[in-house]
Design goal:
The chain is an all-alpha fold. The protein is built from 5 helices and no strands. It folds into 2 domains: 1-32, no CATH class; 34-76. 82% of the residues lie in helices and 0% in strands. The radius of gyration is 13 Å and the shape is globular.
Length: 76
């Protein structure tokens, strides 16, 4: 419960321009497979440290992990 609150607050600060309904949908995806999203976040941080563009990194990561993302999204 407390972990969900912390994740939600962190996501809200990062997604402040995203509508609340979409924020909730993203939070739900993260809650379904938190380990996957932790790994994704680590990969993002490592790539950002190397100086790559964030949008390019996200496109690359989404392509790399496309199958896993589809599985998570289909478990509604």
């Amino acid at each position: 419960m407390f972990k969900r609150f912390l994740i939600k607050q962190a996501m809200k600060s990062q997604l402040k321009d995203v509508p609340a309904a979409e924020q909730e949908a993203l939070l739900d995806l993260v809650e379904r497979n938190p380990v996957f999203f932790e790994t994704l976040a680590k990969e993002l941080q490592e790539s950002l440290a190397s100086g790559k563009d964030q949008q390019a990194i996200m496109t690359e990561l989404m392509s790399k992990h496309r199958d896993e993302l589809v599985k998570i999204m289909q478990k509604q």
